[in-house]
Design goal:
about 290 residues, alpha/beta, Oxidized Rhodanese, domain 1, five-stranded parallel beta sheet, about 10% strand
């Protein structure tokens, strides 16, 4: 039986300082070890972390498989603009067996101030503070798991095929904005990925159901309460954990999307923690060669 465990420890997020220490030691190299920058080629050329390798997020797995010897892997840090697509790609890498893959928290926005325009500083907001509710909504009834039609029979073949499919779809298929969700709340099964206390005390999107991080999405817990006939929207604090989780859910067949920027993009002024701020900027060196 094909089993998935990596979702119980999402997200795999690193901080800028840890990457700086490794880069200063000559950690990055051209084989795909070290820092993988999944931003556009133009943005990478305009400035990046020293020794980072530029590769499209959809090509991460094939790049690593084609250039890295399994016996010589070190930690792999995936960096994007805001941490959203990197968290998505990191989950897929881990499901593929790269347990040394990490996503940099807040992406390049946390590396240097110059990378913030159009991303974290511009994406925080409190538009929906008055729309959050403390009233709980019960999870859906337990149902069947998604049916996977890959043409393969063994667990490894099925998993590999699903990972390849989700990578090929790209992060865009796994992402949704708060505006889109609020524009059609009834169209989605909304999963709040916080503790029960936070779900109750801070409030949540109306109609959202509470799923406890690192517990609820297990097969022997509440995974089967997710519908297979309706789009599932997962949201967390920053959109990074939910991006990681959405990748996992898509691999096992759910039509899942991550609400980008999470609560930071909806109720920022109400948050006392789990939020973006300038304090997250490490101030690392930026190179153009």
């Amino acid at each position: 039986m094909l089993r998935f465990h990596h979702h119980l420890t999402v997200p795999h997020l690193g901080v800028g300082e840890g990457i700086l220490q490794r880069v200063d030691l000559g950690y990055g190299d051209d084989r795909g070890n070290g820092v993988g920058d999944v931003r556009s080629a133009d943005d990478y050329a305009a400035g990046h972390i020293a020794n980072a390798v530029n590769v499209p997020v959809t090509d991460l797995l094939t790049h690593l498989e084609g250039t890295t010897d399994d016996d010589s892997k070190e930690e792999i840090h995936i960096v994007c603009y805001s941490g959203q697509s990197a968290a998505w790609g990191t989950c897929l890498l881990r499901l593929a067996g790269y347990d040394n893959a990490y996503s940099m928290l807040f992406g390049m926005c946390s590396w240097a101030e110059e990378f913030g325009e159009g991303f974290w500083p511009d994406k925080i907001g409190s538009t929906y503070v008055d729309d959050f509710t403390p009233d709980a909504t019960a999870k859906g009834p337990e149902g069947d798991l998604p049916v996977l039609n890959t043409g393969f029979e063994t667990g490894k073949e099925i998993l590999d095929a699903r990972i390849a499919t989700v990578f090929a779809e790209g992060f865009g298929e796994a992402a949704i904005s708060s505006g889109a969700v609020y524009g059609a709340l009834n169209n989605y099964y909304i999963a709040n990925y916080w503790s029960l206390d936070d779900y109750t005390n801070i409030g949540h999107i109306e109609g959202a159901m509470q799923y406890t991080p690192k517990e609820s999405m297990a097969l022997d817990a509440d995974l089967k309460t997710l519908p297979t006939n309706k789009q599932v929207v997962v949201y967390c604090w920053t959109g990074q954990t939910s991006a990681n989780l959405a990748a996992y859910l898509r691999v096992i067949g759910y039509d899942a999307k991550s609400l980008t920027y999470g609560a930071n993009g909806m109720i920022y002024d109400k948050l006392s923690s789990h939020k973006w701020s300038a304090d997250a900027i490490y101030g690392g060196e930026v190179v153009t060669d």
